[in-house]
Amino acid sequence: MKKIGIIGCGVIGTGIAEFISRKLKDKARVIALCDIDPDKASELSKRLRPSPAVTSFDTLIRKSDLVIESASGKVASMVAEKAILNKKDCLIMSTGGLLGRPGLFRKAKARGVNIYIPSGAISGIDGLASAAAGRIKKVRLTTRKPVRGLIGAPYLKKRGIDIGKIKKETVIYKGTAKEAVKHFPKNINVAATVSLSGIGPERTQVRIITSPAYKRNTHELEVEGDFGRLFTRTENLPSRQNPKTSQLAIFSALAKLKEVV
Fold it and tell me: Domains in the chain, start-ordered, CATH in brackets?
């Protein structure tokens, strides 16, 4: 029975915990929860059977066989670092927090630890990873998001953009994945996932477009290289609980868990 600890008990963490409790109960059990808001962790614990312990960050990692991060990019690299130190596998949802930390993957390999990264809210990651075995000339991600899915992004405040005044389709951002993740830390994890699977955050190009007419999060991935050309379009329904999160991102974590548990 694999012992699982979840750091971050919001929409994604809750969905993962409930899935394990319902669908993987013969193979795994959530034994510990941790959240910056202890009440969130306590509420989730009460909904699970058996109820996992609400504990500290470090205690959770020590007690778990697999650590799941579903909190934020601010803690993702710290979770991976401490999991590696304790020789525990980890699954990272906030992939933006891993950019600029290639050493983590080398450390994990040296200590026999797995860092699992779900495909997230986009299709085509398997093809991109395969293409990366050869030469890739271009990777471009075009993301279209409903206006409400971008509220609170640091980039908007920095540029003085009033998202509520946008009346038509507007390109909000154009640049590298590295900068996109920095400016939209809660909105564009998919750019980090694409970067980690392909040619890196400095060479991966990103466009973010919004419109009051958009109802879904849509991601178009274009890849060109020695293999030929790849194009995918994924139209996601936002999570009902959090419009900044695509439902497919949650499902991708569940699919990855079924692989590794």
Answer: 2-120+248-260 (3.40.50.720), 125-245 (3.30.360.10)
